[in-house]
Design goal:
alpha/beta, Aspartate Aminotransferase, domain 2, Aspartate Aminotransferase, domain 1, 2 domains, seven-stranded mixed beta sheet, four-stranded antiparallel beta sheet, 13 strands, 38% helix, 15% strand, globular, disordered C terminus
């Protein structure tokens, strides 16, 4: 299928009946995975709570046509955005005076952070700044380097799939604008050695961007549950920016992320202003001009509705499920965890049981899809990938039963790997 091919379709000449339109939409929606079915891993993060889903729907209805482009025309919407930024900052210990903005997602947050670091590096005379990012970092960093004409340098990882600090030290020089660390990584769910990478960046006058797009609404609540993930946020003096997606484990619908800067003047590098057109001053602190108001309002209302106690309770349930999944993997001879995941994101590779061959991980994934489960496939190492959300908790028994059966099918050749696509968050 050519995803970019334009269909042979024109605007209808006559209006179509409402019932026909809704019927077609429902039929087409039903052919895609059900976001609330508890069988899709990554891409969506439902809470499984009807009261919260109803609250989000009511919020969207109220803010469906609001536009966050002009904070003077919609000052209350702008106020909601500032409060979302502040509440997110409180989770990651943003110092007094620090600031940031909401964005449409992690990729935009990352792009704006890299834009800021490029601007600061150029101000000190670096013509083409470099960014150092682990090979496990999200592709949005390479994308930002492509867009911003920065040099992208990959940091290798060690045998635990964490960024190799010694290798990073050998790569850094005066041209490096920013060092990236993941808290935690999308592929394997492991926490990079953020403290060491941040110290290395500070030693060389570079920024340190912590990608907490996944972990920003996970790690603070793990700490409250008694886990010790290690240092990773603004409590480390070398950390200069953190990106946090609220539309992942903050549980809002897509379109809600935050980029935070330790120093308030760094936000200025994000802002674009122009009065060189007939309509007067135009300004935007993010990539988009017109911005939907509903994701902003939904982020605010969910953060208020859940609070620290609500998020901690949800994370407690998710981590209980993650612990059961880990025990399932550790008790088997044909599976092994990749690295040491710190939260509800896990990767597991197939291994050879005594006297046998390892099951084909793509065959296992295909067998799971035949049973209605949409597991992801990793390429390095070849592995299965799951991102657990609260909606998966009541389905865990069925997941583990079907996974055991799928492994048996793959071991006996009853399932054939088709090498399906890798899916991204």
């Amino acid at each position: 299928m050519d995803l970019f091919a334009t269909p042979d379709l024109a605007l209808p000449l006559h209006p179509r009946p409402t019932g026909d339109l809704l019927g077609e939409l429902e039929a087409r929606r039903a052919r895609d995975p059900e976001p609330h079915g508890g069988r899709l891993f990554s891409l969506v993060y439902p809470t499984g709570r009807d009261d919260l889903e109803a609250l989000v729907a009511a919020t969207y209805e109220r803010f469906l046509y609001h536009n966050a482009l002009n904070p003077f025309r919609f000052p209350e919407l702008a106020g909601l955005e500032r409060e979302v930024v502040a509440m997110t900052g409180s989770l990651v210990h943003l110092p007094p005076g620090g600031g940031g903005t909401m964005t449409s997602g992690g990729s935009e947050s990352i792009l704006l952070s890299m834009l800021t670091n490029r601007g600061r590096a150029r101000a000190r005379g670096v013509a083409r700044p470099r960014m150092l990012a682990p090979v496990t970092a999200h592709p949005a960093y390479a994308k930002a380097a492509h867009y911003l004409d920065m040099e992208y340098v990959s940091i290798p990882v060690d045998d635990t799939w964490r960024a190799d600090v010694a290798a990073a030290a050998g790569l850094i020089d005066e041209r490096v604008a920013v060092v990236v660390a993941s808290a935690f990584t999308y592929p394997h769910g492991v926490l990079d050695p953020v403290a060491d990478l941040a110290a290395l960046a500070a030693e060389h006058g570079a920024g340190c961007h912590v990608d907490a797009c996944i972990g920003g609404f996970v790690l603070p609540f793990l700490e409250r549950l008694g886990h010790d993930p290690g240092a990773w946020d603004f409590r480390l003096p070398g950390v200069t920016e953190i990106s946090v997606d609220i539309h992942k484990y903050g549980y809002t619908p897509k379109g809600a992320s935050v980029i935070l800067h330790r120093d308030p003047d760094w936000v200025d590098h994000q802002v674009f202003l122009s009065d060189a057109w007939p309509a007067g001053l135009y300004g935007s602190p993010v990539v988009a001009g017109a911005r939907p108001g509903a994701p902003i309002a939904a982020a605010w209302v969910l953060m208020q509705a859940l609070g620290v106690e609500g998020y901690t309770q949800l994370m407690d349930g998710v981590m209980g499920a993650a612990a059961r999944l880990r025990r399932f993997v550790e008790d088997r001879t044909d599976l092994a965890l990749v690295g040491d995941p710190v939260g509800p994101v896990l990767a597991m590779r197939t291994t050879a049981p005594p006297g046998g061959d390892p099951p084909d991980h793509t065959a296992v994934a295909d067998a799971m899809e035949e049973r209605g489960w949409a597991l992801n496939r990793l390429t390095d190492p070849p592995a299965l990938h799951l991102m657990l959300s609260p909606r998966h908790v009541p389905h865990l028994d069925a997941l583990l039963t079907d996974l055991a059966d799928a492994l048996a099918d793959a071991s006996t050749g009853a399932a054939r790997g088709r090498g399906g696509p890798v899916r991204y968050a």
